[in-house]
Amino acid sequence: MILDGQCGQFNPILLKCLKELSRQFSKMLDKEMDDNKYYHEIQRLSNEILSDRALPNQNYSQSVVKVMQEKIDFFKSNSGMNSIDYNAISGQLTILNGEHQILCQRDNPNFNLFKEFGVNEEDVQYIRVLLHQTSVQNKEISATIKATVENNSQMYRMKLHTLWSPLKKDGYIGIIGYFDPVK
Question: Among 2, 55, 108, 132, which lies 20 to 30 A Cα-Cα from 141?
Fold first, then answer.
């Protein structure tokens, strides 16, 4: 089932390892012995195959999982009223308000978010400069901007966290963050 793609898509290296080990697994399972006798060896092999050391560093699946964990950690420790999730590669953008209702959702990489929310050009340039200065070591920026959200124009405190991947060497792959009204 796994080799036929009936269980989803698997890493080609993992599939190759499973093919190579299939005879050994079959022999171990065909023997009428205690079911737990080979459990630890199978578990060890499975952990070795799935670990970072056994697979190339350029593994897409592992990168996706790491980015998702980074998003979860950011939103857990930073609870803003309005949240932002932007995929720099696809252009997908989602902005949610405090009630988790969608304020904005776009799949167009050419969409002008700043124009949509009435952010002035000076603030736009300031945010772009700050984002340009981010790196794998320095992922976060903060700024105060004037924007119009739900027909209410006011100052907002914004915190953005850039997401990075070893698969893309020339910049961040996404931005998450939040913005709250300044009180």
Answer: 108
Six-digit token pair at 89? 């590669």
Q: Which long-range contacts (CB under 8 A, 24 or more apart) does 10-16 make?
A: 11/55, 11/59, 11/61, 13/55, 13/56, 14/49, 14/50, 14/55
pLDDT tens-digit series, residues 5-23: 766 777 777 777 777 767 6
> Please, which contacts does 85-90 make with residues 24 or more away whose CB atoms are closer than 8 Å?
85/174, 85/175, 85/176, 86/174, 86/175, 86/176, 87/173, 87/174, 88/171, 88/172, 88/173, 88/174, 88/175, 89/168, 89/173, 89/174
pLDDT score for 41: 60
- The DSSP-derived string for 81-94 is SEEEEEETTT--EE
For residue 183, give the 3-state DSSP assignment: coil
What is the pTM (predicted TM-score) of this model?
0.64
Count the residues in the chain: 183
C-alpha count within 13 angstroms, C-beta hemisphere, residue 40 = 2
